[in-house]
Amino acid sequence: AIRVPDSSVLSYLVSITGPLAITSANPSGEPDSTHHNTVLDTLGGKLAGVVCDDESNETVASTVVNCMKFDEGLISYFRVGCVPKDIVDNLFDEVKKEQSDQIN
After folding, report:
1. How far apart are the first and last CA of the chain?
2. Which residues are registered as beta bridge partners of 74?
3. pLDDT at 86
4. Residue 90: what are its φ and ψ, rounded to 5°?
5. pTM for the full model?
6. Residue 63: Cβ within 10 Å count
7. Which residues form the YrdC-like domain (predicted)?
C-alpha cells in the first residue's frame, strides 16, 4: 500500500530518503488516528517522536491504496479516506498512460 503524506516536512523527508516502510499510528483494531494528539495519547510512551509541521484539521483517515497488482494495471482500496477515490483513480490512469507512452 502507498500513503502520501499531506505534510511538507514528511514530503521533504521522503524526497531525500525515498519511500519509507512505516505502520499506522494506531494499534490494530483501534480507531484511526487522524490527529497527532491522538497518536501521542495512544502511543506516546512507545514513540521516539511524532512529526507534526502544523495544527491538523484532519477528521478523516488517509486513503490507503493496494498496489500489489499495479504491474497488471490494477489497484484496489483498503480504505477510502480523505483523498477521494476518483482523484486516486485519475492519478493512476495518468501513470498508466505515461508508462504506455514510454513503452511505445
Report:
1. 28
2. none
3. 94
4. -65, -40
5. 0.66
6. 20
7. 1-83
Question: Residue 62 burial by CB count (10 A; 0-12/13-18/19+): exposed, middle or buried?
Answer: buried
- The grid cell for 71 is 504491474
- 51 pLDDT tier (thresholds 50, 70, 90): confident
DSSP 28: T
* Residue linked to cell 484539521: 57
pLDDT-derived band at 38 (thresholds 50, 70, 90) equals confident
Q: Select the more confidently predicted residue: 86 or 23.
A: 86
Which residue matches cell numbers 489497484? 75
Q: Record the cell numbers describing residue 94, joined without a space.
A: 495518468
C-beta separation of 39 from 49 below 8 A: no
